């Protein structure tokens, strides 16, 4: 029982840490957006920042391209703090924890594919729909990580179903 209380305490710390880091990053990006001529916040391989600087992509188009990344980040912070909140309450293998896992994994999948295609979208915005010159970089490590995460969530979901089935017989 003491180890469960310890995990709950650690989860509380991590929950507030996730919230604090999320707010700090959001504030830093917000400050960077309103600061004229800043160059200390970039996304990806700097291609989009270079295109904005060269005048090939408008700041409005760049903002629209970056907006999904911001939404994915904020959703990730929300679901991660919610997961640690469930752990903080001692709920380790419940339906709400599984929902958090599923959201986090699918956000990671969406983020992976969006960041993979972001250079193409940036080139499309720069070219105005004409010929596109963009390189796609596929990170096999991240792809493997995604596959493992999906497998883990599937196994956890099956294990939770078996646990519930066993409890119904007792």
Describe this structure in words.
This is DUF2975 domain-containing protein. The protein is mainly α and 170 residues long. The protein is 78% helix and 0% strand. The chain has five helices and no strands. Helix 1 (2-34) packs antiparallel against helix 3 (59-88). The longest helix is centred in the first third of the chain and has 33 residues, at 2-34. The radius of gyration is 20 Å and the shape is elongated. It starts with a helix and ends with a helix. The mean pLDDT is 85.
Q: Please describe the biggest sheet, giving its number of strands, its sense, and whether it closes into a barrel.
A: none
Structural class: mainly alpha
Number of strands: 0
Query: What would you report as the Rg, rounded to the nearest angstrom?
Result: 20 Å
- The low-confidence runs, each spanning 5 or more residues with pLDDT under 50, are none
| Fraction of residues in β-strands | under 5%
Please estimate the helix content.
over 70%
Distance between the termini: 22 Å
State the shape: elongated
Write down the secondary-structure element order: HHHHH
